[in-house]
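B., you asked whether I could sanity-check this one before it goes into the benchmark set. Here's the sequence:
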Amino acid sequence: MNSYMKRIIWCLISCVIITGTTDITGITGFDLSRSGNKAYAQTLEELQEIAFNNRDIVKKYLNEIKISKERVKEIKGSFLPGLDMAYTLNQLNHNAVTGEKNQNDTFRTAISWNAFSGFSDYYRLKSAEIMTRYSTEMVESTRQNICLNVALRFLEVYTALESLKVAENEVKLYNDRLRQIELKFRVGVLKKSDVLKVKVERDNALQTERRVRALVDTSLNQLALESGKSLDQPLQSSKIDFSLFHELPEKGDYKALELLLVKNRSDLNALKHTLESSKMGVKASKSDLYPRADISLSYASHTRDDFFMKSMENSDDEIRGQATISMNLFDGMQKYSRINQAHLETRSIMHDIKELENSLKTALKNTLIEAEVAFDNLAVAGTGTKEAQENLRVTDLGFEQGIGTSSDVLDAIYNLSRARFNEINAHTQVFANDFQLKRLIESF
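And here's what the prediction gave me:
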């Protein structure tokens, strides 16, 4: 969030905000009703959906889900019997002393099935199924990250547009003051320095307007990039719906949000699935302590004096059924080491879960503190804007009556500019914190 907020704050600082209203929309004069056809205006939710469908990082994780499902299919195959076939041609340089001819072949087919292996296949299957849910959670976590980034870029565009309108109004206000002062200069009431002071401020406002106008374009490009749109089809500010910023979000309660955070966070749930899968891995590793039972049925045909296809009547056939029980008694303590490793991996994941949960809860508390400050600042800034506006009005009256100087007017303008900046900054921070809260509890 810091990089986004720095850009937003820079945008606001760069504008010396001069207008005559306390309403945020009125401050900028940005009238959404004239921002193009509402029926075709894109909302934040639509841009987030476009980003989710277009971003390659999402496609990557969707592909991971497919890989996880294929692994499940692979493991399920171990529950089925295996079928093998082999055909061997032998060419010797002379007949063997055992009576084997120099040309002979062997055909063999076998069906084998593992009847028991200490439940390792079962636990491996459960682990693979759990990891499929892990991949699904990672897709949702990625979607939430994309939604947050798009929302912050969306807010950045809105702030740039607000600042642009403010800068345009500022230039207009300086031009109005300049005309008044030039008129008084011509009649000898004011000095040339009074005119030059206002011109300097007007020229600075013109430069600010150009910078903010460029910032609007770059912000739109960044929003298009974050949304996965092609630069060949740039976004147009007139076709974006910013109406969500007209109503302030509700303040959040920590206890209620904490419950949603623990329940909804995909990365936290993904780690919990990993823990569950790891526990299945512990049980699977213990399968080495159990015996293994295998069943097989085979058929073999060996020709005595020629190739199989030429002399089928001279072949020896064998059908063999086998049941084998095997167990490792000692392997240098390797299986016990594997079991210990599985236990240690499980503990590591538990520590990761605790760390992430504490980190998220702390982030939630801090974001709520920042949100409370932003709401308070917005209320104070609104009052400060009214007071600064009244101060400018009184100063203008005194200047017109000859009891004030141009410096007094410029000071009043500066105070009003600072008050307006505080108001817009607080308004921006309120929504930036709200977007962060939505990301924390995954409510995008």
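One thing to flag: The longest strand covers residues 103-116. Otherwise nothing jumped out at me.
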